[in-house]
Amino acid sequence: MSAALRHPALPLNPPASGTTFDHAHFHRQTFGDADLQREIIQLFLAQIEDARKTIRTPMTTTSWRFLTHTLKGAAASVGALRLAGLAAAWEIEGSPQDAALRGTILAQFEAEAAAFSVAVRGYQD
C-alpha cells in the first residue's frame, strides 16, 4: 500500500494546545492597521468557506495537499494557530479517500473554524 493511501487515525478532537487566534501576532503582521485587519479577516473567512466545501469531497492526493498546505500557511499568517496545526496534520495524511476519515477531518475543521469566527468578531464590520 502506498504511503499516500495509508493514514493513521486522526485524533477525534482538535489538539488542546495552541491558540485559536493570536491577536498579538495578527496585530504585528498588519502593523495595527484596522482597515487591513478587517480586509484580511474577511478574505480568510472566505477561504474557510471555500475549504469547507472542498473538504467534503474526495480528491487526488495532490489536490488534498495543495488545499491543506494553503490553509496551513494562510491560517498561520493570520494567527489561527490551532487551525494551522490541524491543517499541517491533515496535509501529512494524504488524500483521505475514505468517508469516515473525511468526516473526522470535517468535524475538526468545523469546530476550529467556528472558534476562529467567534475570536475575530471584533475585527468584522
Tag the structure with descriptive keywords.
elongated; 0% strand; 125 residues; mainly alpha; 5 helices
Written description of the protein model:
The protein is mainly alpha-helical and 125 residues long. It has one domain. It contains 5 helices and no strands. It has helices at residues 23-29, 34-55, 61-78, 81-92, 99-119. α2 (34-55) packs antiparallel against α3 and α3 packs antiparallel against α4 (81-92).
The CA-CA distance between the termini, in Å, is 50 Å
Shape: elongated
Largest sheet: none
| Classification by helices and strands | mainly alpha
- What Rg, in angstroms, do the CA atoms define? 15 Å
* Relative helix content: 55-70%
SSE order: HHHHH
Q: Give the amount of beta strand, in percent.
A: under 5%
How are the secondary structure elements laid out?
Blueprint: H1 23-29, H2 34-55, H3 61-78, H4 81-92, H5 99-119
Helix pairs in contact: 2-3, 2-5, 3-4, 4-5
Question: What can be said about this structure in brief?
Answer:
The chain is mostly helical and 125 residues long. It has helices at residues 23-29, 34-55, 61-78, 81-92, 99-119. It is elongated and about 40 Å long.
